[in-house]
Amino acid sequence: MSSDRRFVRLLSGAAIAAAGLALAAPASARPASTPESLTILTSGVVHVTTTSGRHLSLSVRATRFAKNAGGSNADRPSTVAVSLRGNSGHETHTWSFTVAPGSFTDTSGGNGTLKTAGQLAPYGRLSLVISPVSRLTTQVCDNANGNQIHLVALKGTLKFRSHSPGTESWGAVAQRSVSFAHGRLSAGHGPDVEEACAAIPCQAGLSWTASHANIDINGTDVAAKGNKPVSHLEANRSIRLSTPAHATRIDTVIVKSPAPRLTSAGGATVTAHSAGGIATGSARLTSTRRSGYRQNCSTGQLVGKQWSATYDAAIRPLTLHEQVFGALRISADKNATFRKVHIS
């Protein structure tokens, strides 16, 4: 994963949506008159109570890619993801599954279905009908790529088991009648629609990232122009599930934290501190090489400095704690990065 991609993950989903997926005025023509090559369905959120008594937020995402750039994705497999978020908002777990062609369908009018049958076993199944609740809008990203977007509602049935162990288990969700009111169906057209229509939010400040094996930890102290910086710590862990084939789970913790400190004596160093409770401990990133940094963002350009660095945990390592599936921490990373940027 490139450093730019890794730093994009630090930015809030809302900021990315606002920057990169703004809707243009309604239009009837397909962007660039090319086949539908990238289709993304996001459900919005429903609040559920699980069999273990947990009050969680649940959301669904489905994605379908063309095999060849700019080709049709109509007969392609899809990826279906189910996310459960704790009511504190700090902890999220996302299970992703590959499903057969025809499991996720859509039309140019914004209708569709998401029906997995037994393909998610032993985790559950979805049977949802997609209906448009808005007129078609078109996002033109360049002369070859764009998105057709409907706001949609999803209704149907849903069963999902978290398979989280222990006394803090998140249990299972069983909804014989579930309704998502704030969904979004995006049909992308063009050979490079994913890249062309993405945009990095313009947020200035200090950011860092470190990883080891299947865990990455990131820190930010950033803000949009004119706003006061806000500091966060985020940790992600990727787990390959034993069944079904190609299934994964991503464990995520995000928490506000004290701002990281940047010093320059003998080479730049970032010291990261935890917020306590959900996050504990600290770590230090020490620069090994400095370079200039310049990157286009949604409304301008990010300009500043970037350092390659080593990440070393303190005696009490920087750790983000979860209710289920265990704590996230790394002890060292020789390929860490941090950067300090402003908006130009």
Helix and strand layout, with pairings?
Blueprint: H1 3-8, H2 13-20, E1 36-49, E2 55-65, E3 78-86, E4 91-99, E5 104-106, E6 112-115, E7 124-132, E8 137-140, E9 146-161, E10 172-189, H3 193-196, E11 204-212, E12 215-223, E13 230-240, E14 248-256, E15 261-263, E16 269-273, E17 279-280, E18 282-297, E19 300-313, E20 319-320, E21 328-329, E22 332-343
Antiparallel strand pairs: 1-2, 1-10, 2-3, 3-4, 4-14, 5-6, 6-7, 7-9, 8-9, 9-10, 11-12, 11-22, 12-13, 13-14, 15-16, 16-18, 17-20, 18-19, 19-22, 20-21
Notes on the protein architecture:
The model is unreliable at 1-30 (pLDDT under 50). The protein has 3 helices and 22 strands. It is mainly β and 344 residues long. It starts with a helix and ends with a strand. 5% of the residues lie in helices and 56% in strands.
* Spatial gap, N to C terminus: 26 Å
**Unreliable stretches covering 5 or more consecutive residues:** 1-30
List the total number of helices: 3
Average of per-residue pLDDT values: 88
> Which structural class is indicated by helix and strand composition?
mainly beta
Helix and strand run: HHEEEEEEEEEEHEEEEEEEEEEEE
Helix content: under 10%
Largest sheet, in brief, is:
19 strands, antiparallel
List how many beta strands DSSP finds.
22
- Gyration radius, rounded: 21 Å
> How much of the residues is beta strand, in percent?
over 45%
**What's the overall geometry?**
globular
